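ugh ok fine here u go
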Amino acid sequence: MKSLKISTRGRYALRTMIDIAVNSDGERNITIKEISHRQNISVKYLEQIVNALSKAKLLRSVRGAQGGYRLSRRPEEYTIGEILRLAEGGLAPVECLENEVNTCPRRSACPTLAFWEGLDRAVRDYVDGVTLADLAQKEREMRGGGEYYI
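structure:
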């Protein structure tokens, strides 16, 4: 059974998306080498992650001398859940909740099903309630470049 722990792939996909959101400002393409350097992720592993993000249309790939990657949408239009589900292949706490329809033969007699459904709902609500823009802003604040209002 799959663990609730987010894998390196999921964490790196999220860091990659945040890095691009913070450093491109929607105008500049970001290269894999730049991300690799800032995030301390190997270029080879990062290529796999970026390819998956591009294939799912979360990133747009631009070829050429000024090439690289940029977000396909505005940062506030991505949820963290969307990014993690793509990287992880799902976030369900138990196998029977991985698909839209629960086909487990024990579902009608399972005393723990309601608990697992509640946990799944809580995780979904949380990860889908945080956007890439939220985490990009947190990154800017941690760098000292946040905007503060009085």
